[in-house]
Write the structure tokens for this entry.
Amino acid sequence: MFHVGGARPALYTWAVARQSGDTFVLVSRTPTRPVTGRSVLSEIIDALVAIGISAEDPVFECPYFQSDNATALASSSKSGSEHLGV
């Protein structure tokens, strides 16, 4: 289910991306359950289409899954904290 509270920022971000020539990127933050996240994400994409944001739109960038980059994110986080002396 796509809540209006999620539709509003999506529409705003998409409109700003279109106007400025930037990209609207959809990121899924489901690192522990990527299969569930992918099925929910397809519902979100369907809802975006229903409000006028199509995956074929040139400013729309396909969804990225945080779980696909978990190792890189952990490594980046670790090196960043070491750099700060944390």
Strands lie at 24-28, 60-65. The first helix runs from residue 4 to 20.
